[in-house]
Amino acid sequence: MTITHAEENYLKAIFTIAEKEAGPALTNAIAAQMQTSAASVTDMLKRLSDKQLITYEKYRGVQLTEEGGRLATALIRKHRLWEVFLVDKLGFAWDEVHELAEQLEHVQGNDLVSRLDSFLGYPKFDPHGDPIPDAEGRWTFRKQAPLATLKAGERGIVTGVDDHSTTFLQYLDQLGLILGAELELLERFPYDQSVRVRIRDGRELILSDKVTQNLFVKIS
Amino acid sequence: MTITHAEENYLKAIFTIAEKEAGPALTNAIAAQMQTSAASVTDMLKRLSDKQLITYEKYRGVQLTEEGGRLATALIRKHRLWEVFLVDKLGFAWDEVHELAEQLEHVQGNDLVSRLDSFLGYPKFDPHGDPIPDAEGRWTFRKQAPLATLKAGERGIVTGVDDHSTTFLQYLDQLGLILGAELELLERFPYDQSVRVRIRDGRELILSDKVTQNLFVKIS
DNA sequence: AAAAATATTTAGGTAAGTCTAAAAATAAGT
DNA sequence: ACTTATTTTTAGACTTACCTAAATATTTTT
Separation of CA A47 and C1' D7 in angstroms? Predict the structure, then answer.
C-alpha cells in the first residue's frame, strides 16, 4: 500500500496535535494545522481510515493506529535529521530550514535515513532542540522547562523553543540566545512578568513574558 | 507560475531526448522515456506549451523554449549534485542513487543548490561521469570516447558510462572498472569485437562489444 | 497513388486532493 | 429544554496527471 505525501503530512499533523492536546485530534484543529478547510480534512480522514492509519468516528475526532503512529514518528525523525543536515552541514540558519525539511522528509528509499543519521553522528536533537526519535521510534527526553519557571538567582542553559516562528528564532539569534547559551536569571519584574538575565559575555537582557514562556532551559 | 514535479520531469525527458537525437522530441520517444502512454504525453505537452516552456506543433514534436531549457538544466544540475552527495557523503554505490536523486531534485528552496554545490566542493562530474552544469547552466565537456574506439596498445582512464543501468554499473564494479580506473587495450578480437584489456593491478579482462560501447574513456 | 502501418491526438473516464456552499450533528447559552 | 452557535460532514465542482479506446495524421510500402 502506497502512502502519498499529503497523507504523510496529515499523519504528522494528527500526531503533533494528539501530543499537544493529549486526546483525539479534532477536524478543525487538523484543518488549522494543515492550513486547509475542514471539508478537505474530513475527506482525508476517510482515506486514512480506509487505510487503517487512523481510527475515525464521525464527529468524534481521530486517533492514530499503531501503524499510523509509526509512520508519523518516522516522518518526524526524517524531518529533524534533515534539519540537522541543513544547519550543521549546509550552514543554514535555524529559522530557514523548516520548509526545506518539509520537502526532504518525503524522500523515500532504502537506507537513506539510517545513512543520513550516521553521517550526522546520530544526533539526538534538531537545531531547535526538539528530540529526534531513533530508528525504532524511541524518544530521548530532556529535563527542560520554560525560562518562565526559573527563579531569581538560578542559572540555565538554552535547550529549545516552543514557538518555532521565524520572527522568534531570529529575535533569539539577535539576542545571542542560541542553543547551548548559558544564562542567569537576575530578577523578575512582577508588573509584567518580564525578567532580567545575564548571559555569558556579561551582557544583561530584558526578556518579555512571551519570550520566557517560549524558551526552554535546562536548570544548571 | 508554479511548475509541478511531473512537468519538471517532462522537461528533463525532453531535454535528454533532444540532446541525444539532436532534433525535436517526438511524442512516442517522450512516452518511452517517461514510461507512460502517448496520450498522457500529448496531454502534458499542451500544458507545457500553455506555460511557454516548450514550442509544440501537433504531430511535429516539441522543443524547449529558453525558459524550458533553463529549468531542465537546473533540474539536471540538482539531480547530479544530489548523486554526488549520496555517493561521496552517504556512501551509496553508484548504481543505488538514481531513484533517490530523482526525488531530491524536486526539492526547492532559496540557496539549497548553491550551498549543496559548495558543500560538495563544486564537483564538475557526477558519480557516473556525467557533467554537472554550473549555476549559469554552463557545461564542462571532456574529451572522452567509448572504449570501443581505442586501438590496441592505447591506454585510457575510465571517465563515464553511456548505459546507466544497475546491472551494467554493478558489473563494472565487479570488474574493478570504476571511474578513474586506468586500462590498456591489449588486443581486439575481430570475431565479435570483444577486447582484452589490462588494468592497473595487472589483471587482464575480456570485455564484450556491448561493454566497450557503453564505457567511456579518456585516451591517455 | 492507394493501402497498410505507424504515430499522434481526441474523447471520455478515474483518483487524489483541494475548494465553497449547504446540510446535519453536537455543544453551549439562556 | 429549547434555541443559538459551533463543529463537522456531505454535495458538487475543479485541477492535475494519469488511463484506454477510438479517431485522425503522417509515413511507409507496394
Answer: 20
Residue B31: other Cβ atoms inside 10 A: 17
Block residue for cell numbers 504525453 = B41
Residues 30-89 of B with CB under 7 A from strand D: 36-37, 39-40, 43-44, 47, 58-59
| Cell numbers for B167 | 546491472
pLDDT per position as a tens digit, B15-60: 999 998 878 999 999 999 999 999 999 999 999 999 999 999 999 9
Question: Which residues does chain A have within 8 Å of residue B100's beta carbon, measured at their own beta carbons?
Answer: 107, 109, 112
Could you please report the per-residue DSSP string of B157-176? EEEEES---HHHHHHHHHHT
* Chain B CB within 8 Å of residue A102 CB: no
Can you tell me the distance from the alpha carbon of B13 to that of A131, in angstroms, rounded to the nearest whole number?
41
Q: Does A34 touch chain B (CB under 8 A)?
A: no
The DSSP secondary-structure symbol of A148 reads G
CA of A98 to C1' of C27 (A): 37
Measured CA to C1', the nucleotide nearest A45 is D9
Measured between alpha carbons, how far is B14 from B26 in angstroms, rounded to an integer?
9
CB < 8 Å to B106, chain A:
103
Residue of A nearest to B91 (CA): A115
Whole-angstrom Cα distance, residue A80 to residue A194? 31
Count each helix (H run) and each strand (E run) in chain A, helices first: 8, 8
Domains and CATH numbers, chain A: 5-64 (1.10.10.10), 78-140 (1.10.10.10), 145-219 (2.30.30.90)
Q: Which residues of B touch A91 (CB under 8 A)?
A: 115
Over residues B100-113, the pLDDT tens digits come to: 999 999 999 989 99
| Residues of chain B with confidence (pLDDT) below 70 | none
- C-alpha of A59 from chain center: 28
- Looking at the complex, does the CB of residue B2 fall below 8 Å from at least one CB of chain A? no
Residue among A179, A89, A166 at smallest CA distance from A131: A179
Distance CA B71, CA B77 (A): 10
Cell of B137: 547552466
Count other Cβ atoms within 10 Å, centred on residue B154: 14
CB atoms within 10 A of CB B136: 7
The ranges of chain A with pLDDT < 70 are none
Q: Within a 10 A sphere around the Cβ of A162, how many other Cβ atoms?
A: 13
Which residues, other chains included, contact B3 with Cβ-Cβ below 8 Å and sequence gap of 6+? B51, B53, B71
